[in-house]
Amino acid sequence: MTRFVFLGPPGAGKGTQARQLAAALGVPHVAPGDLFREAATAGTALGLEAKRYMDRGVLVPDGVVIRMIADRLARADAKLGFILDGFPRTPEQAAALDELLADAGHSLDRVVFFDVDEPEIVRRLTGRRVCPSCGSLYHLVSSPPRVANRCDRCGSELILRDDDREETVRTRLGVYARQTAPLLERYRERGLLVSVPAGGEIDTVHRALRTATGVAP
Ligand code: AP5
User: Fold this and answer.
1) How far apart are CA 87 and CA 149, in angstroms?
2) pLDDT at 1 over 80
């Protein structure tokens, strides 16, 4: 079974690693930030409400996120496992996740903390470019597209996320320190937490992630 939570500051590389590992394991990668951005692009009420919070770099209210994740984990493809990337981020969300899993007779297998220092985070986020059509991730320096500003997979024009401007990145780091970092202790006490040094190159981090989670290379 693979029921993993990826925790760490914004820009730590959670999404990059979650996509690779989820594809290798055949489980869904469940990321509330991605789900909100898809909903905002589709112009739904949920997406437009979430965007008001995301653009400011603050968390979407717990009730909204918890309902969305409960619906997503109830789908058939998540029955045998998932990688949760960016959920939970508050004690209320963590308690709700415990309850959801307990109701289904399940529990978490690992909580992975991505450990990166702040200057590297700012470098990663301000250089990040994303494809608004297929969600592919790039970095201007460490993983640039083959053709400048065009997605390798679908050719769409790449964009800078509204919340990746430096001032909003600083707000997000503060929100992470106050509201999310305290969860590390909760999972450490339960013996679920593993820490991955995530400041190195993508492949190096991926190898460390597989070792920490016991997933064969
Ligand atoms: P979300 O989309 O989850 O953003 P985040 O947690 O801030 O994480 P990021 O997506 O910014 O970073 P990441 O760690 O995934 O790094 P990535 O792999 O992309 O959330 C956005 C917003 O949604 C929140 O602010 C909030 O408003 C709302 N939200 C989401 N979840 C919520 C919740 N549970 N409750 C309430 N609100 C919620 O990598 C970053 C860059 O670095 C990329 O360019 C990548 O190419 C590059 N990179 C990655 N790894 C490496 C490496 N090893 N070396 C060099 N470059 C690298």
Assistant:
1) 30
2) no
DSSP category for residue 177: I
Looking at the CA of residue 10, tell me the nearest atom of ligand 1.
7
Q: Can you tell me the distance from the alpha carbon of 85 to that of 217, in angstroms, rounded to the nearest whole number?
A: 21
Q: What is the DSSP string of 76-128?
A: GGGTTEEEEES---SHHHHHHHHHHHHHTT----EEEEEE--HHHHHHHHHTE
Per residue in 55-76, pLDDT tens? 999 999 999 999 999 999 999 9
Predicted confidence at residue 193, as pLDDT, reads 98
Q: If you ran DSSP here, which 8-state letter would residue 112 be given? A: E
Gap between the Cα atoms of 15 and 86, Å rounded: 9
Distance in Å, CA 34 to ligand 1 centroid: 9
pLDDT digits (tens, 9 = 90+) for 79-98: 989 999 999 999 999 999 99
Q: Whose CA is nearest to atom 2 of ligand 1?
A: 33
